[in-house]
Amino acid sequence: MRFRYSTDERGRPVKKAIVYTSDEHHINSFDVDIEAVRIVGRLKQAGHESFIVGGAVRDLIVGKKPKDFDIVTSASPSQIKRLFRNARIIGRRFRLVHVYVGDTIYEVATFRSLRDGHNGNTYGTIEEDVLRRDFTLNALFYDPKEQVVVDYVEGFKDIKTRLIRPIIPLSVMFKDDPVRMLRAVKYAATTGFRLSLPLRWKIKQQAHLLDTVSPSRRTEELFKIINSGNSFAIVDQLLKFSLYQYLQPNAVSMMSSDAKFKNLYMQSLLALDQLIKCGKELQSGEVISYFIRDYLNTIVDWKQEPFEAYRAALTACRAYVLPMNPPRIELENAVRLLFREHGIGIKKARTFEKGRNKEAIPEPANEATQVPGSQGPKKRRRRRKNKPT
Ligand code: ATP
Ligand code: MG
Fold this sequence. Notes:
This protein is of the alpha+beta class and about 400 residues long. The chain is built from 17 helices and 15 strands.
């Protein structure tokens, strides 16, 4: 174990961070994305500090393959942009850089400062940056060339003892950003780590702050959850912490009055997780279809004229998923997929492209047809039976 030092006001060295070497952190360098290593390398070569940071380091330490690699650096956005051919500065408030390599986007952020609080928009040092991160397990820096983990907050120890502990003081943590409550519970569900007692207590006390979060941010969080491949475990935990009602109030109220509905809902999430985990390419609307299918089955009168039934179901589902506001075409495709499972084909609205505008226009004579060879409701039952429990 080594240490990183900085100096105090009188110029004396002060221990600031623990540095773990590869025999201590045991990160398998083959699990580290080669392009992320290249990006960090180029930044360092140009004289800047740079690390892989956040969830990727956490996942590498627990031996899980990270889903993305975020990079942090002392270089400013314009300095970063100059170093990469395929890079774009994004964000109006806090600018960061997207580096494009093939189909993958690497997010490269400049260290943030604490000057104007934990949510401010000024650039700072690594020592300030670490204090703006939400939990210790997300605040480790990995240098892939030296193969060391730099730890300012005892996050490595917390990962080893399976503890989720806040960095930002709890007095401002959730007031500044209530979404951090969802993040805490999400990490507990996906890692199996326990939340520290003060953290649990604060979440119970301040859950209501999630009401103040914009629908678009809530939609974004919910989308991350349902696309994670762990939606069953995450939603289960969010329900236990009484947080899911801020994402899906209608579903929660149906679940609390109908245990059978809750069971079906959770089974659908489990089936969705399996689908995502096996890496199958999903079509537009497919993820959402798992998410609304049990509701849709309670409201649709399958004997109704099909297109009328489809239109009514679409309207009802749009209201059901509020405050989530999924792209219109995704929801339409989801409802269409579910009708297809019942043997009813609803023709897609015609789309036309003009310049860069892509817009879906409803066809006046949207047709409803029986899907050839479909077995109607029977097929659906078979699907249910096959769902893992
Ligand atoms: P995931 O595996 O879901 O991507 P992650 O930890 O990488 O998890 P990101 O949303 O990708 O999460 O964020 C990257 C890092 O940025 C986090 O690990 C954390 O250090 C920091 N971070 C993100 N959102 C917040 C927030 N709301 N408050 C404080 N720090 C945050
Ligand atoms: Mg991430």
